[in-house]
Amino acid sequence: xxxxxxxxxxxxxxxxxxxxxxxxxxxxxxxxxxxxxxxxxxxxxxxxxxxxxxxxx
Length: 57
Ligand SMILES: [Zn+2]
Description:
The protein is an all-beta fold. Helix content is 0%, strand content 39%. It has one domain (3-47): Rubrerythrin, domain 2 (Single Sheet), CATH 2.20.28. It is built from no helices and five strands. The strands form two sheets. It has a three-stranded antiparallel β-sheet, with no helix packed on it. The site of zinc ion has 8 residues, from loops. Zinc ion binds at residues 6, 8-9, 11, 27, 29-30, 32.
């Protein structure tokens, strides 16, 4: 199971092997909502945007 880095607390987040782009995960350690994205062929986690709020990019 791949372990990715949480962009909020820099802790480790376990992500299923078959997780898809755009899938959301909650990091239990800090409670952050994280979105899986693929960057340059590798999976990374970014902070998911709050629903209903548009922060731009
Ligand atoms: Zn975290």
